[in-house]
Amino acid sequence: MKIEICVGSACTMMSAMNILDYFEDWAEEIGKKAIEEEIDLEEIEVTPVKCRRDCSGNYDASPVVYINDKVIENANKDKIMEEIFKVFDFKGLM
Ligand code: FES
Question: Which pTM value belongs to this model?
Answer without folding.
Answer: 0.92
